[in-house]
Design a protein that fits this description.
Elements lengths: L1 H7 L8 E5 L5 E13 L5 E12 L8 H16 L3 E4 L6 H6 L3 E5 L2 E5 L4 H6 L16 E2 H5 L2 H8 L9 E2 L3 H8 L7 E4 L8 E9 L2 E10 L7 H8 L5 E5 L4 H9 L3 E2 L6 E6 L15 H4 L3
Length: 296
């Protein structure tokens, strides 16, 4: 179910995959990329993939299976017209990607809002990868149910322009797919009476010794206030709220007023591999939220 949602039902397209077999036909390696699409400030798009799932049979580890599958995939993706690959590899796997031509763009800027003084020691123990699976939350509604209102989501997105940075090409179909998988327990808080008035999409999960509210999307049009969302999450039992701080315009300026403080140490490192398009962006050219780069 998880694989089908992630790799088969993605509105950007099914995930391409490559396999390696030994002489007997036994599967010894797998390399999968998740399709993605970015939108430039001028409205044109970039065809992208995220380097995600990979596996090598234990008997074949250390024999270059991962590298050969990845480099072969890049050749095929270039022929297909895919512009770039991006991902956030950990410290162990990043050197291997850099050897294959990936570029280190920098740390994704993130900001934190503590829910109280008791959260300070918890934050100190949160400098590790977050759990993949979410905890339950009663705040808001299931995001998949909220984002199933296609007309409302379309009306909301119409209130935003393209912005001045490269961002994920958000469509009603993409947002509904991205946050509808029930076991990941994404939740949505409305910023008004209806979806068109704005949404905050989040999930609650453990990170080390802390319980975190991961803010995946802040879709707040001009005139909308996020105060009610932050207040509801503050009272939900989490230790802190974590959000990307590279959002556009008003939302970026609102970070300090909303009580969010930049915490560079928690940001994952973004890497980028040009494929059919030679560009490697700087962090200032990108507007990426946690929903764009979190592992799922």
């Amino acid at each position: 179910m998880f694989f089908a949602w992630k790799h088969d039902e993605n509105p950007f397209g099914q995930s391409p995959a490559w396999v390696a077999q030994d002489d007997t036909g036994t599967l010894v390696g797998l390399r999968t990329f998740l399709r993605w699409r970015f939108r430039r400030p001028d409205g044109t798009t970039l065809s992208a993939v995220r380097a995600v799932d990979t596996a090598t049979h234990p008997d074949w580890q250390g024999r270059g299976i991962f590298s050969r599958l990845t480099l072969s995939a890049l050749d095929d993706l270039r022929d297909e017209g895919v512009d770039c690959v991006f991902n956030t590899p950990n410290d162990k796997s990043r050197p291997g990607y850099l050897k294959m031509g990936w570029h280190e763009v920098g740390k994704i800027p993130v900001s934190v809002r503590l829910t109280g003084l008791r959260s300070i020691p918890k934050l100190a123990g949160a400098r590790t990868a977050a759990e993949m699976w979410s905890d339950e939350s009663s705040v808001g509604r299931p995001a998949g149910d909220v984002l199933a209102d296609r007309d409302g989501v379309e009306a909301l997105l119409a209130r935003f322009g393209n912005g001045s940075r490269i961002s994920t090409d958000r469509t009603p179909e993409f947002l509904h797919w991205r946050y509808r998988f029930a076991p990941l327990r994404y939740r949505a808080v409305s910023l008004g009476r209806g979806v068109e008035d704005g949404l905050v999409v989040f999930r609650v999960r453990k990170r080390g010794t802390a319980t975190e509210a991961t803010i995946c999307e802040v879709l707040a049009p001009e005139g909308a206030s996020t105060k009610t969302a932050w207040k509801a999450l503050k009272g939900s039992g989490v230790d802190y709220l974590l959000k990307g701080s590279a959002a556009e315009g008003r939302l970026h300026l609102a970070d300090a007023r909303g009580g969010f403080v930049p915490v560079p140490a928690l940001g994952p490192i973004l890497t980028w591999r040009p494929v059919a398009h030679p560009m490697v962006p700087t962090m200032d050219q990108l507007a990426l939220g946690l929903g764009d780069i979190e592992l799922f």
